[in-house]
Amino acid sequence: MTQRILVTGHRGYIGAVLVPMLEERGYQVAGVDADFFRGCDLVPDPVASDTIEVVAADVRDLTVDHLRGFDAVLHLAALSNDPLGKLDAALTDEINHRASVEAGRLAKEAGVRRFVFSSSCSLYGASTSDVPLGEEAAFNPVTAYGRSKVDAEHGLAELADGDFTPVYLRNATAYGLSPRLRGDLVVQDLVASALFTGKIEILSDGTPWRPLVHVEDIARAFVAVLEAPAAAVHNRAFNVGRSEENFTIAQVAEMVREGIPGSEIHYAPGGGPDARSYRVNFDTLPRVVPGFRPEWTVRKGITQLAEAYQAYGLGLEDLRGERFTRLARLQRLLDSSEVDASLRWAGEPLATVGA
Question: Which domains does the chain have, with CATH numbers?
Answer without folding.
Answer: 4-354 (3.40.50.720)
